[in-house]
C-alpha cells in the first residue's frame, strides 16, 4: 500500500521564497518587485540561483559593470550569508519555523557583488552542487556501514543517474538506484541538527549504544544534552523540525531515517528556536578565527 | 585511532614541532606566513597560511584543513590556492595527483567558515595501511604525507624523533626502513 511517504510525498513538497535585491544595487531603479519562487525542499538554493539572477539582472541599468572575480552572486538570509550547501527544506525550517505566519515566504536578499569568501563556499555550478551532494552521500554511507563501498562501487553512469533522479525529483527511481545505501541496519545514524547562527551539530551515534527502540528524544538527549536533558518531552524543550513538521520526541529514529531522510541520505533536523537563556551553541563554543602572531620561524618549504 | 589517541599523538608531535599548537576545541593548528614567489598576484606577496588538523567524528580520522589569504586579508580563490599548492607540492608526492584531485572547499567543522580540505573518505584505508605496516605513530605518518602534499617539509629533527622514538610497537626496526636521509620521507600511494 503506497502511503504519503513511500510515494515520495515529501519530495513533492515545495516552499515559497521571496527574493529582493541588495539595496545597494537599487540606485536607479525605484524598487523592483520581489521575485517569488516555489523551491523543492529536497533541492539546493544554488540550483535556483540562475533564475533569480536573470530576473534581477534584467532590471539593472545598461552598462552596470561587475568585477568578474569578486562579484559572484550570493544570497542573504536574516542579515547573514545563506549557507546554501544545506538542503532547501532544512534551511527553510531553520529560518521560518516558529514564526507566527507559517505560510509567509522565506525572505532572501540577492547580492551581486563582493562574494563573502570568508563566510560561505562558492557554489555557482551544478557540478559544485553535485560534488557536495555526493560527499554527503559518502559520509552518510560511511556512518551507516562503516565504509563507503556502496558508493565507490557505483560506476559513473549510475552516479549520474542518481543525481539526475534527485534533480528531477523522481522519487521512485532514486529509491531503486540507492537501495544499496540502505541495506542493513545502520551502525551509526546519519543525523545532522541545524541550529540558528552556528554550524550544524553532528556527532556519530553508535546504534549499538542506544536503546533498542531508539527515539528522536534519545538522539537529541545524546547530541544536545543542555537543550534536551532527558529523552522525554519536557515543558519548554525546543521544537525539532523536519519538512515543516515539529516532530514528537517519541518518534522512532529508525522510522525517521527510512521516511524523512533527504536525498543525501542524511536526516537533517532543525531546531529553529533555542529557549531563552540557552547558550548560543549548546555543544561547541563559537570561537573566532584564530588570531595572534604567527610563529616567527616558518617550517621549511620544499 | 580514536579521538583520545588523536589528542595524545597530536600533543606528542607538537612537543617536538613547536610551530604547531593545540587549540582547546580539539585540533592542531599551524599558522605561518610565507613570503614567496606568488607571481600572479603580486611578486613578493606575503601569504598567510593557516593549517588545521581536525578530528573527523564521522570518519574517525584526522583531516587536513587549510586556509590561504593574501597580505590584505583577502582569501585565496580556489584557483589561486590550487596554483599555490601545486607550485609548492613536493616532488615525492606528485604521484598522488594535483590539488584538483584532493583539495575541496568545505565548511570548517569548528569555525564554520570556508577552508580547503583533503576529503577524509580515503583516509580510513590509509590509516589501516599504516597500522598493517606497524607504524608506531600513525598520526605523524599521516601528517608527514599530507604535509608533503601541500609542500611543507617535516624538519629533520622531528622526523628522526618519530622514527627512532615513539611508543614501542610490534618490534619494528628503530631506523627508517629504506635508508633514506632522515628528512626525506616517502610513503606508499593511498
Automatic annotation (TrEMBL), chain A:
Topology with regard to the membrane? Peripheral membrane protein
Q: Which Gene3D superfamilies match?
A: 3.10.20.620, Autophagy protein Apg5, helix rich domain (1.10.246.190), Phosphatidylinositol 3-kinase Catalytic Subunit, Chain A, domain 1 (3.10.20.90)
Instruction: Report the locations given in the UniProt record.
Output: Preautophagosomal structure membrane
Q: What is its main location?
A: membrane
Please list the residue ranges annotated as the Autophagy protein ATG5 UblA domain: 10-111
Note the superkingdom of the native organism.
Answer: Eukaryota
Domain Autophagy protein ATG5 UblB spans what residues? 189-271
Which portions of the sequence form the region Disordered? 275-302
> What UniProt keywords apply to this chain's record, in alphabetical order?
Autophagy, Isopeptide bond, Membrane, Ubl conjugation
Keyword Ubl conjugation in annotation? yes
Q: Where is the composition biased (Pro residues)?
A: 275-296
- Annotated ranges, domain Autophagy protein ATG5 alpha-helical bundle region: 127-178
Q: Which family does it belong to?
A: Belongs to the ATG5 family.
The task this protein performs is described as:
Involved in autophagic vesicle formation.
Q: How does this polypeptide assemble, per the annotation? A: Conjugated with ATG12.
Name assigned to this protein: Autophagy protein 5
From TrEMBL, chain B:
What's one Pfam family the UniProt record gives for this protein? Autophagy_act_C
Q: Does the keyword Isomerase apply?
A: no
UniProt-recorded name of the protein: Ubiquitin-like-conjugating enzyme ATG10
Keywords noted in UniProt: Autophagy, Transferase, Ubl conjugation pathway
Query: Region annotation Disordered: residue ranges?
Result: 168-190
Q: Which organism is it from?
A: Paratrimastix pyriformis
* Family note: Belongs to the ATG10 family.
User: Do the record's keywords include Transferase?
Assistant: yes
User: PANTHER family, alphabetically?
Assistant: UBIQUITIN-LIKE-CONJUGATING ENZYME ATG10 (PTHR14957)
User: Please, which domain of life does this record's source organism belong to?
Assistant: Eukaryota
